[in-house]
Amino acid sequence: MPVYDYKCQEHGLFHELASMDRAHMPCPCPQCGKQSARVVMIPPEILAMAPERRKAEAANEASRHAPRHSTVDSRAEAQERKIWTQQHASCGCKSHGSPEADRSALSQKAVLLADGSKIFPSQRPWMISH
């Protein structure tokens, strides 16, 4: 059985063995018997860490499970997006000339068929839609 941390309002932290199905439930304080909530302990080195480093650690942890792959195409697309954002920062527009708007405009147009059903053409005609 795992050991969980609980905190009594009068007597502070204490540790108790509890089954995993009872981990969410409060535990009685060993000194006063009062029901105490479970707490999750954070290592002090994380609390004292500089915000920039904490942000970098979080980014590293996220990329550990879902890394971003840099390709020539992704770099070119990022550069194109950056230039477009800089050009349109002052006008506040979100649609004209945007590569994303051009792509989404194509996929948003519905085509009505003779039987009354709709189809939504996309840039990936080989994909099966639902």
From TrEMBL:
Residues 1-41 form the Putative regulatory protein FmdB zinc ribbon domain. Residues 52-81 are annotated as: Disordered. It holds the Pfam family Zn_ribbon_8. This is Zinc ribbon domain-containing protein.
